[in-house]
């Protein structure tokens, strides 16, 4: 039971990270129809941002904040420079553009910074564990869950209450109609990228807490998995992205916890196969997007 | 099924010309070139197989795939395992079963085995992936690539895991690569114009329209998916026999991306484009590789740049995407530039129009409802439409007309009630099955297969109604239908380039190719001027009187509705509030209230 609870918390922590990444992808996709491959590089940029600000002697919490802001800024710039020329192109064109941007950034990181990991110290205060009853719960896990919860709540409030948030939801439903209603397209798109950058940054911080180092490929694999989580949840749906993220987290943690040792190497293959199997039964994902045929 | 529906003369000529254009220079280099040149050409030919294979699926379906690289990896793995000498095998793959360890196959058997095994695997995966649309499908192929790579790495003992597979016999010489490359482009070119290729391209151009003419989209994708996976496996296996040493990570994102870049640079949907893309990108990669180790310009030196090739590919693809999105060839084949390939097929002597029995039957709606969450968009509507009758469906905006149409056509699943044709229940059947039951439709926003010719638009529908017809007969019948709608002279024009009224006619011709009993028309007169509307009235009248179809017409043009329709049904807020002749409906108080509001309706009465 205890083991189960502990694994449950692990699943929440990991799923939360995927949910944040997936949400960032979904915010952009719902507005633009763009699958942003370079989302992972935003995570990596957060890592390097923290690494260099720490090197400059900036206090730890401020360095984290700087890292997240760098990701947000980079996301907005990315849209301005690379994605605007293909804004109304086919999904394939946009996807390839973002893949190219992602690859270019990898290689720049490798050449300009280093192909090797750069260590980012994790403060002692969050390394330990607290005991609840007879359970040992990692502080990092708790922190991850708390940060995920706060981020999701913050984003929900923004989307429900603020004018810009409402405009974004309208744009996600039907961008053309939203524009006819006077919603400023550039504003909405920039905001979407800024939000996705912030979410990638937060996810990056959580990822760094677990790994303690940043390298050029840091964001690549988690974001690939987040893609899959987004498709599982239903491409285009924000709620779906969060649900998909948590489900993928649960699948991965359960496999890690219960798979026999000899099979552990297969866990990515198994979890992704499970997801594709779900898609066989729910091709539109868990929260399908409604499209009218006229 | 007639083989001639699969092998189209024009495509055959086009394929032969491409094959010659490829074979002559490659053979010359192979016979007289230096060793490095031969190596480059062999490598190019293998990549060409990979690109054409990808193009066969992605180009015709419009779904970008990273997964074909996974099939290459599997092909390489299987073929290598079968051909490595037994002595070497025991140390490399200790966990393999004895019969495999002790045997060694030749190239042909090994290729055959890789292609067949991968085909089977692709079939199973395709059952899931081919049901996904657009970006979802692409991401699933990405998942496939990760799955296969991680399986190969994890299964160390059966594979070499992370380490290099070595000792593979060098069997992929230039003549072998050339022969397979020619075979692949011929297959890809013939597929494109064949019946199955036509249907898949239609699905790529417009999903809903393809379903409306009866195309089972996942099934069509599956054909291309399996065929292209098998060709990818062939490319992978040949690459293994060309390199003689490879590791799993060589068949990962870098290779997948390089192949995609070749396809995108060459042209989104073109076999000739695949060839052009493979030539250009291979050349670029060769040059960049030489620069990668640093360049000495004498005065200054460019240091070694890690990943220069990748950056180069990225910049090439960005340049293409920013300036010429459809790639060099776009949707065109060499036929467009070489008129002699295009000579008109000898049409069978003008036979009489296919005799056609007047349709019979009644389309019945019983208490059909559609709810979205708490909102009832259509509420328990009862309607009947007989052949030879025109039923108008009108109502204020948002009254549920298009939704009701969708419930009949199968694009929406009704949440309650029944839809029948005579005694056949079609409630909630997918759109393509409804179409095959004899219900054609047109769309409010015209939906044609824009990058296909007018004739191809009609032919795609014809193949669904008459699967056994050969190509020549399809051409002949499509001409006949286009002629009936007075657009025969536009047969070879791309549908997307036609004028509005012509597009509307083409859409009707395409629907008629199904020989439907009933035709659903969603706002056919929207956006038309008076003379175009008069024109349309003529066509619709002809459909009913001469063809005997039953029409369900949704429109806001009251003149058209009143003049055309035998009976008129009025929807308001999802409910049927009136049904009867034009005069009866005009007299109905409920209808006035719905259109004008209660107060104004009273004033008029």
UniProtKB/TrEMBL annotation, chain A:
<dbReference type="InterPro" id="IPR001851">
    <property type="entry name" value="ABC_transp_permease"/>
</dbReference>
<dbReference type="GO" id="GO:0015192">
    <property type="term" value="F:L-phenylalanine transmembrane transporter activity"/>
</dbReference>
<feature type="transmembrane region" description="Helical">
    <location>
        <begin position="12"/>
        <end position="38"/>
    </location>
</feature>
<feature type="transmembrane region" description="Helical">
    <location>
        <begin position="263"/>
        <end position="282"/>
    </location>
</feature>
<dbReference type="Pfam" id="PF02653">
    <property type="entry name" value="BPD_transp_2"/>
</dbReference>
<dbReference type="GO" id="GO:0015190">
    <property type="term" value="F:L-leucine transmembrane transporter activity"/>
</dbReference>
<feature type="transmembrane region" description="Helical">
    <location>
        <begin position="50"/>
        <end position="77"/>
    </location>
</feature>
<keyword id="KW-0472">Membrane</keyword>
<keyword id="KW-1003">Cell membrane</keyword>
<feature type="transmembrane region" description="Helical">
    <location>
        <begin position="139"/>
        <end position="159"/>
    </location>
</feature>
<comment type="similarity">
    <text>Belongs to the binding-protein-dependent transport system permease family. LivHM subfamily.</text>
</comment>
<keyword id="KW-0029">Amino-acid transport</keyword>
<feature type="transmembrane region" description="Helical">
    <location>
        <begin position="180"/>
        <end position="207"/>
    </location>
</feature>
<keyword id="KW-0997">Cell inner membrane</keyword>
<dbReference type="GO" id="GO:0015188">
    <property type="term" value="F:L-isoleucine transmembrane transporter activity"/>
</dbReference>
<keyword id="KW-0812">Transmembrane</keyword>
<dbReference type="InterPro" id="IPR052157">
    <property type="entry name" value="BCAA_transport_permease"/>
</dbReference>
<dbReference type="GO" id="GO:0005886">
    <property type="term" value="C:plasma membrane"/>
</dbReference>
<dbReference type="GO" id="GO:0005304">
    <property type="term" value="F:L-valine transmembrane transporter activity"/>
</dbReference>
<feature type="transmembrane region" description="Helical">
    <location>
        <begin position="227"/>
        <end position="251"/>
    </location>
</feature>
<keyword id="KW-0813">Transport</keyword>
<dbReference type="GO" id="GO:0042941">
    <property type="term" value="P:D-alanine transmembrane transport"/>
</dbReference>
TrEMBL record, chain B:
<dbReference type="Pfam" id="PF12399">
    <property type="entry name" value="BCA_ABC_TP_C"/>
</dbReference>
<feature type="transmembrane region" description="Helical">
    <location>
        <begin position="12"/>
        <end position="32"/>
    </location>
</feature>
<dbReference type="Pfam" id="PF00005">
    <property type="entry name" value="ABC_tran"/>
</dbReference>
<feature type="transmembrane region" description="Helical">
    <location>
        <begin position="38"/>
        <end position="57"/>
    </location>
</feature>
<dbReference type="GO" id="GO:0015192">
    <property type="term" value="F:L-phenylalanine transmembrane transporter activity"/>
</dbReference>
<dbReference type="InterPro" id="IPR027417">
    <property type="entry name" value="P-loop_NTPase"/>
</dbReference>
<dbReference type="GO" id="GO:0016887">
    <property type="term" value="F:ATP hydrolysis activity"/>
</dbReference>
<dbReference type="InterPro" id="IPR032823">
    <property type="entry name" value="BCA_ABC_TP_C"/>
</dbReference>
<dbReference type="InterPro" id="IPR003593">
    <property type="entry name" value="AAA+_ATPase"/>
</dbReference>
<feature type="transmembrane region" description="Helical">
    <location>
        <begin position="108"/>
        <end position="130"/>
    </location>
</feature>
<dbReference type="InterPro" id="IPR051120">
    <property type="entry name" value="ABC_AA/LPS_Transport"/>
</dbReference>
<dbReference type="GO" id="GO:0005524">
    <property type="term" value="F:ATP binding"/>
</dbReference>
<dbReference type="InterPro" id="IPR017871">
    <property type="entry name" value="ABC_transporter-like_CS"/>
</dbReference>
<feature type="transmembrane region" description="Helical">
    <location>
        <begin position="69"/>
        <end position="88"/>
    </location>
</feature>
<keyword id="KW-0547">Nucleotide-binding</keyword>
<protein>
    <submittedName>
        <fullName>Amino acid/amide ABC transporter membrane protein 2 (HAAT family) /amino acid/amide ABC transporter ATP-binding protein 1 (HAAT family)</fullName>
    </submittedName>
</protein>
<keyword id="KW-0472">Membrane</keyword>
<dbReference type="GO" id="GO:0015808">
    <property type="term" value="P:L-alanine transport"/>
</dbReference>
<dbReference type="GO" id="GO:1903806">
    <property type="term" value="P:L-isoleucine import across plasma membrane"/>
</dbReference>
<feature type="transmembrane region" description="Helical">
    <location>
        <begin position="171"/>
        <end position="191"/>
    </location>
</feature>
<keyword id="KW-1003">Cell membrane</keyword>
<keyword id="KW-0813">Transport</keyword>
């Amino acid at each position: 039971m205890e083991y189960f609870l502990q694994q449950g918390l692990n699943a929440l922590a990991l799923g939360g990270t995927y949910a944040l990444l997936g949400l960032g992808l979904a915010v952009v996709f719902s507005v633009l129809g763009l699958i942003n491959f370079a989302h992972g590089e935003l995570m990596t940029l957060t890592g390097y941002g923290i690494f260099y600000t720490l090197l400059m002697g900036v206090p730890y919490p401020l360095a984290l904040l700087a890292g997240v802001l760098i990701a947000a800024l980079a996301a907005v710039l990315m849209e301005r420079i690379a994605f605007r020329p293909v804004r109304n192109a086919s999904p394939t064109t946009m996807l390839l553009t973002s893949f190219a941007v992602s690859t270019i950034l990898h290689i720049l990181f490798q050449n300009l910074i280093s192909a090797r990991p750069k260590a980012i110290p994790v403060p002692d205060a969050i390394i330990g564990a607290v005991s609840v009853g007879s359970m040992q719960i990692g502080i990092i896990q708790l922190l991850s869950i708390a940060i995920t919860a706060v981020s999701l709540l913050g984003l929900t409030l923004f989307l429900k209450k603020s004018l810009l948030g409402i405009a974004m939801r309208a744009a996600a439903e039907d961008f053309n109609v939203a524009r006819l209603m006077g919603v400023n397209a550039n504003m909405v798109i920039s905001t979407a990228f800024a939000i996705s950058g912030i979410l990638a940054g937060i996810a990056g911080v959580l990822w760094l807490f677990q790994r303690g180092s940043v390298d050029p490929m840091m964001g690549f694999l988690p974001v690939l998995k987040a893609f899959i989580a987004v498709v599982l949840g239903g491409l285009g749906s924000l709620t779906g992205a969060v649900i998909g993220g948590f489900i993928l987290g649960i699948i991965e943690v359960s496999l890690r916890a219960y798979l026999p040792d000899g099979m552990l190497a297969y866990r990515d293959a198994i979890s992704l196969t499970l997801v594709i199997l779900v898609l066989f039964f729910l091709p539109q994902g868990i929260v399908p997007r409604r499209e009218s045929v006229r | 099924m007639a083989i001639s529906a699969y092998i189209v003369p024009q495509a055959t000529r086009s394929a032969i010309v491409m094959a010659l254009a490829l074979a002559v220079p490659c053979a010359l280099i192979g016979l007289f070139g230096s060793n490095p040149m031969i190596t480059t050409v062999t490598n190019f030919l293998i990549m060409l197989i990979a690109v054409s294979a990808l193009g066969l699926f992605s180009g015709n379906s419009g779904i970008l795939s990273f997964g074909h690289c996974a099939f290459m990896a599997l092909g390489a793995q299987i073929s290598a395992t079968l051909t490595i000498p037994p002595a070497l095998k025991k140390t490399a793959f200790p966990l393999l079963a004895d019969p495999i360890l002790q045997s060694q196959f030749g190239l042909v058997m090994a290729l055959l085995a890789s292609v067949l095994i991968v085909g089977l695997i692709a079939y199973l995966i395709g059952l899931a992936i081919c049901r996904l649309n657009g970006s979802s499908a692409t991401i699933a192929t990405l998942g496939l690539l990760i799955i296969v790579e991680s399986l190969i790495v994890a299964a160390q003992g059966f594979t070499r895991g992370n380490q290099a597979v070595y000792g593979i016999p060098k069997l992929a010489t230039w003549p072998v690569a050339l022969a397979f490359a020619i075979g692949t482009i011929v297959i890809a070119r013939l597929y494109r114009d064949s019946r199955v290729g036509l249907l898949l391209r239609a699905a790529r151009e417009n999903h809903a329209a393809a379903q409306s003419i009866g195309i089972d989209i996942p099934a069509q994708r599956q054909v291309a998916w399996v065929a292209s996976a098998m060709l990818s496996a062939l490319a992978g296996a040949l690459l293994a026999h060309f390199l003689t040493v490879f590791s799993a990570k060589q068949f990962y994102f870098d290779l997948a991306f390089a192949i995609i870049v070749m396809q995108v640079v060459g042209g989104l949907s073109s076999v000739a484009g695949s060839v052009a893309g493979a030539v250009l990108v291979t050349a670029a990669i060769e040059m960049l590789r030489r620069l990668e180790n640093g360049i000495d310009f004498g005065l200054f030196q460019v240091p070694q740049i890690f990943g220069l090739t990748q950056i180069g590919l990225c910049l090439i693809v960005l340049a293409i995407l920013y300036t010429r999105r459809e790639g060099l060839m776009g949707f065109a084949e060499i036929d467009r530039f070489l008129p002699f390939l295009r000579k008109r097929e000898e049409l069978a002597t003008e036979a009489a129009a296919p005799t056609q029995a007047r349709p019979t039957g009644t389309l019945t709606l019983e208490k059909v409802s559609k709810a979205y969450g708490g909102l009832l968009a259509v509420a328990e509507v009862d309607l009947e439409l007989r052949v030879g009758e025109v039923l108008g469906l009108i109502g204020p905006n948002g009254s549920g007309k298009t939704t009701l149409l969708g419930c009949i056509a199968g694009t929406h699943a009704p949440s309650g009630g029944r839809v029948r044709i005579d005694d056949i229940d079609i409630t909630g059947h997918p759109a393509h099955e409804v179409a095959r039951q004899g219900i054609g439709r047109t769309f409010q926003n015209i939906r044609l297969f824009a990058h296909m010719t007018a004739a191809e638009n009609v032919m795609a529908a014809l193949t669904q109604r008459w699967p056994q017809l050969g190509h020549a007969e399809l051409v002949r019948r499509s001409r006949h239908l286009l002629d009936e709608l007075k657009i025969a002279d536009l047969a070879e024009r791309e549908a997307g380039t036609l004028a509005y009224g012509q597009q509307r006619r083409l859409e009707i011709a395409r629907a008629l190719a199904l020989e439907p009993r009933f035709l659903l028309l969603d706002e056919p007169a929207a956006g038309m001027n008076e003379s175009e509307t008069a024109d349309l009235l003529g066509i619709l009248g002809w459909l009913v009187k001469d063809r005997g179809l039953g029409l369900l017409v949704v429109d806001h043009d009251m003149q058209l509705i009143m003049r055309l329709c035998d009976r008129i049904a009025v929807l308001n807020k999802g409910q049927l509030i009136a049904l009867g002749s034009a005069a009866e409906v005009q007299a109905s108080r409920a209808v006035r209230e719905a259109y004008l509001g209660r107060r104004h309706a009273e004033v008029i009465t």
